Each structure stands twice: as C-alpha cells, then as structure tokens.
Amino acid sequence: MEVSASGELPAPAGSIYDRRSEIKSFDETKTGVKGLVDAGVVEIPRMFFHPPDDSKKAPGNGDSRFVFPVIDLGGMDGDPIRRKEVVEEVRKAAESWGFFEAVNHGIPASVLEEMLAGVRRFYEQDEEVKKENYTRDNSRKIVYNSNFDLYSAPAANWRDTFFSMMAPDPPPPEELPVVCRDILVQYSNHIKMLGFSLFELLSEALGLNSSHLKDMDCAEGVLVLCHYYPACPQPELTLGTSKHADNDFLTVLLQDQMGGLQVLHQNHWVDVHPTPGALVVNVGDLLQLITNDKFKSVEHRVLANSVGTRVSVACFFSTGFYPSSKLYRPIKELLTEENPPKYKETTVRDYCAYFNAKGLDGTSALLRFRL
Questions:
Q1: How far apart are CA 213 and CA 221, in angstroms?
Q2: pTM, full prediction
Q3: Is 161 exposed, middle or buried (0-12, 13-18, 19+ CB in 10 A)?
Q4: Cβ contacts of residue 187 below 8 Å, gap of 6+?
Q5: Contacts of residue 178, Cβ cutoff 8 Å, sequence gap at least 6
Q6: Are 296 and 288 in contact (CB under 8 A)?
Q7: Please, where are the H alpha helices in the chain?
Q8: What's the pLDDT tens digit per position in 278-294?
Q9: What are phi and psi of 268, to 5 degrees?
Q10: Beta bridge partners of 281
C-alpha cells in the first residue's frame, strides 16, 4: 500500500477524507478508543492508520547484541562492592540502551498487581462516571482523554490515558477517582522512593556525588500516566503508541503480562518481554540533555494487538506542568574541552510544551535544543 509523503494513507477513489472532522467527532464522544471497541467496531477509523516502519525486528536467536538488560537492585545495603557492581550495570545500560528492567526494586508485588487492577477498574467503570474526568485541559488535577496529541500527531494511537501529577503537589485524595484512589496514592509514594534510589545510582554512574541529580530537582515531580490499550480488530494498521522518546528525566514503567513494548536498539526493534514483578526504567530526553549525551533517551513504541487489553502505568519524573524558571543545561562537571556542551539551556516546562505541541511525529524534540 502506498503512503504519501505526509504519512497519510490514500483515500478511496472519488472520496474526500476530512481528517479533522473525524478526529473531532471521536473526541466529542468522550469515550476514547475503548468506546469504539465497546461499540463493536470491526474496521478502525482512518485517523488511526500508521505508515509502515523501516526499522528491522531484532533476531530472536539469542544474539547478544539484543539481550535486553535486566538489573537486580537487591543486596546493596551495607555492601559497597555490590553497590559498585550495580552502578556499573546502570551506567552501561543508560549509555548503550537507555533502558533496563529492574528487579528486586523494593515495591511489593501485591502493590504492583493492585495498581494494574486499579487502572482496569477506572476504564471499566460506567462511561458517564469516566466522562466527568474527560478533558484536554492539562491544568486539571485529573486528566482523562485519548491521545494527548490527537489534534497534532500525524496518526492517532490505539490508546486511552488518564494521568495526575502526584508530586510535588498531589491532588487531595478525594479528587482522585474513587475506584483507584488508595492504590494511586500508595503506588506513587513507592515510586518516589524508588526514584530517589535510581537517581543516586545514575549520579554515581556519572562519577558525581550520589545526591547530585536529586539536588538538581530531577526527582521533584512525578506524573503518573495510566494507559489502556484495548484489543484492536486491525492491529497491523495502527500502533498502541507511536515511536517516541520520553520528555522527562526518567520513566519507571509498570506493564502487565500482555507485552507489546519495543525498544529501538541499533536500528532494530527489541521486544521488552514482561517479567513478573519487574519495572522498566528508561532515560528521558532531559537526562540526555543534562548528561550531554552520555546517557541516551531512546525511542520506543507499543504495538497494538487483537488478543486482549494491555494496561500499563508510566511514572514520569518531571515538573513539566509546573511553572518554574529553573534552567537546565549540560552538567558542568561532565564537560571538557573535548566534550563541550551540546545543548542550550531550557526550563522543563518549555521543553515539555514544545514536545507536547509537536506530538508524537517520529522526530526527537532534543533536536530543537542542540547547539
């Protein structure tokens, strides 16, 4: 099938395709992709069509280049040798993959399971109750919609999302959805503590004091995004999430056992097979910026599937929705004559505003900030 230069699939002969009208009609239902599935759609609307991707699928023959890194965070307390080993593993993963899977991270399996169950409860509750939170106003304490970039991205994704800033200024508990209120607060508290530990390891991996990134407020903000990917009748035509890198310092992802997450490594798509009890950790654009490209913010995507619903929870360490004049630039301790700064300074808010306005269009937002 031919695709135009803009990424659009051709309209049937003799027809006029009004994409804007299709998007608006979909948005005004306030029921998201799940609403389409519940209505029994068998052919997905054209607004969800994605052009083919040129990157190859990684070979599944155990090629060592494509073995996704798994890091055991256990056993570091009071054991400096073990800690040094973990720091080295984190350094290698952050430099080469931009991703790793963390096991023995300290968050109980029961909390992870209940968080995923809470997300399912939110999406499976009565439509009219859900609609109360449907909005495109990101200043709201709770935001539920389908595709944050619905009106700007070249193609929509087969995914609904609700999110809330849970740090530094979380909403009052009574404003959170009752079906997942308690676990959202509990899980966010666990993630904040894990974030502190991860930023310490990353700081040491850069050869800096363990508190360096935390002192820069990299761990100050936590945005919790709860994604719902319903089964898709035509998964080969669309994606759950387009190829992109994250617009934060660090992301910690909890995914269910459905699978579908892929990371682009050496121009090959590598499956991140779900490991029970594990969390996926990845470097964001802002961490790549302040480390002057030492740590890599790597593109990833989520495939659509026809088998069943996928649920995930992505926790973004970022203050992108808060007004702040704090400027971020490459860390001076990492710079030398041979390694001069590669990025101009920016606030987190300005970076995120540019990223969100651009949408998931297949290009890196970092390019705009390069010197």
A1: 13
A2: 0.94
A3: buried
A4: 107, 111, 112, 114, 115, 224, 313
A5: none
A6: yes
A7: 19-29, 32-38, 80-96, 109-124, 127-131, 181-205, 212-215, 285-290, 348-358
A8: 999 999 999 999 999 99
A9: -125, 140
A10: 100, 252
